[in-house]
Amino acid sequence: MDPPRVGTETAEFRAAALDDAINGLAARDPLASAAIAFVPWQKYVGFAAIALVVAAAVVAPVGTLVAITVICTTGYLAMMIDRLLLFSRGLDASAIVTIPDDDALALADDDLPQYTILVPAYDEPEVVGDLIAAMSGLNYPPDKLQVLLLLEEDDDATIDAACNAGVSAVVEVVLVPAGDPRTKPKACNYGLHFATGTIVTIFDAEDMPEPLQLRRVVAAFASLPDTVACVQAKLAFHNGSQNLLTGWFTADYALWFGYLLPGLMKSKSPIPLGGTSNHLRRDVIEKVGAWDGFNVTEDADLGVRIAASGYSTAVLDSTTLEEANSDPINWVRQRSRWYKGYLQTWLVHMRRPWKTMRALGPMGTYRFTLLLAGTPITACINMVFWFTTAAWILGQPALIEELFPPYIYYFSLVSMIVGNVATIYMYLVACRESDNAYLLVPSLTMPLYWVMMSVAALKGLWQLLRNPSYWEKTFHGLTAPVPHDVIDEKVA
Length: 492
Description:
By secondary structure, the protein is an alpha/beta fold. It has helices spanning 11-28, 40-59, 61-90, 101-105, 128-136, 156-165, 184-192, 213-223, 244-266, 282-287, 298-308, 328-349, 353-395, 398-403, 406-433, 440-444, 446-466, 484-491; strands spanning 115-121, 145-152, 172-176, 199-202, 208-209, 228-237, 278-281, 312-322.
């Protein structure tokens, strides 16, 4: 049965939809939700591991620190080898789905499916006008396109901005009942109850998708196996040249969406979805439980659950432009949430490790662990090793010399040099292939960006322990408006 149209739903329907939006996955499968950050056995294992390390440090402090150094260095090397492997596979043109313009335009309007776009926004009155322009620019028949702007019912500023901008001519507004958790997945789950499309996608309010993206997705689904449940478009930034931070962020995305995600697709590994422009078969996302209302990287979690359910994700050569964070504090807020969510997702899926391994396979589980646990943990321990290196350069204390006997020192030195050079090389290739010459300096100065990543990872780890489901707000509209001809050139 079709859900009630926006604005005509009953109070009972809204209450049931809200409860399902927040607790739906947790009620159906409690162990699959991040509603509880750590299940009891994970706490016991964590405390036991800490106690074991402390006891070992008391008995043999130097030996314990040497062992930790070896483990960390081995982890670094494993991540770097896997990252290079994914990058090499992402270089293959067949790793990404390409739909030419002519094929997208050849689709008859009558043959196109109903499409729903969910646009969750909170405290973002400044980007409502951009939303109208972006949605109006999509090449898709209006009678088959439903755009739902999901606003918290107590977000008066954004609601007023939407009313003043006349969004009703382009989109329908859904007022999400206010209350915790104030998360994007809660809003998307609530909006799903009003969706009429067989394909559902998410855009942020400031997103600028290329006009043919929806048609390309329809053509992609038609050409791909029925096991493909999601088509992820590429994300890029329209303000990458604003300052050094936006340049780093843009280079980071060029590598991630241009090569590493396609490499994951080529490897048939779980793909942690991007926060927007993931186009989903509605029947599949409802089958796997939709979004977890308590996970702060609901996209990554959904991507893993799609893979664990026997489906897959394809990466599409179509770009959505976003606004890169130009403010360091705002960037740390956003990246710390991502790191926290990665760890949340890993902890959730490793509550039943044998089930996860059977679903993803040994290599899929290994790569899932390297990406979602290894990425934030490595960023955290980077700070420790940087301080250790600085201490050695400044004073050469004897303890550090003991921690790095020759067989560890040379192994770590090779790992550091090869790893850093290889990573910068991957950034340079990604930026060259995306025709962003201005990213040369950001790519060569990436180590400075890694310092910010480390700060964000440490903050995310602390929040995971103290406030796991808190959604730290990322502010948008910090850059000057971009002329439409510049946007058209970047999207093309």
